[in-house]
Amino acid sequence: MKITSAEFVISNSEVAKCPDSKLPEYAFIGRSNVGKSSLINMLTERKNLAKTSGRPGKTQLINHFLINKSWHLVDLPGYGYARVSKSAKKTFQKFITAYFEKREQMICAFVLIDSRHKPQPIDLEFMEWLGEHQVPFCIIFTKADKLKPKALERNINDYQAEMLQTWTEMPRYFITSSSSGMGRDEVLDYIDSINSQFAQ
Questions:
Q1: What is the dihedral of CA 119, 26, 88, 90, to 10 degrees?
Q2: How many CB atoms lie within 10 A of CB 47?
């Protein structure tokens, strides 16, 4: 897929105020500091489409972007916020949950996981929640360029082993690097393949 246009549409904290559109949408979510904004900018080849920050938890709203005037990319707040109050965490969690439960246009969630770390309980619990609520999702392993190939392979194998203790099969996953562009074509081709099914 070639990205010819990418434009910001709206930010809000209420699912009811999300765009009134039948276009398919793909949500990106992950732990704070997982490299979500950098990944979105890499996928769209727009340097500042999503705001990047050295301070984790910068995204605090549901952000909709219209891609190629044919589908929405949704940037969701992270879970496991590093520097927000307990009440703010509850608020975020509430509208993230509402988004996944109510947003019928949401075709697939991309759960971002930092490939440098061992399986984290917070990531595993979140994916379990998605599974229990029958929310379709894929995994995107980020920051792959920060590891040597053997270490990267070992960490992903650890994730597979951990997940297969409770899952019958591993969700589809992609290995990416925002700095090198690794995985860009694979993620976009996957989205394109789903979109083409909707267009039929």
A1: -70
A2: 9
C-beta separation of 113 from 142 below 8 A: yes
Count of C-beta atoms within a 10 Å radius of residue 19 = 15
**Spans in the chain with pLDDT lower than 50:** 53-58, 82, 84
**Which of 4, 50, 31 has its CA nearest to residue 143?**
31
Tens digit of each residue's pLDDT (9 = 90 or more) over 55-78: 444 457 889 999 999 999 999 987
What is the spatial distance between Cα 72 and Cα 157, in angstroms, rounded to a whole number?
32
The enclosing H or E element of 125 equals helix 121-132
How many other C-beta atoms can be found within 10 angstroms of the C-beta atom of residue 120? 15
Q: Which two tokens stand for residue 197?
A: 């099914």
Structure token pair of residue 77: 């707040």
Among 122, 93, 94, residue whose Cα is nearest residue 31: 122
d(CA 124, CA 161): 12
Kindly report the pTM of this predicted structure.
Answer: 0.90
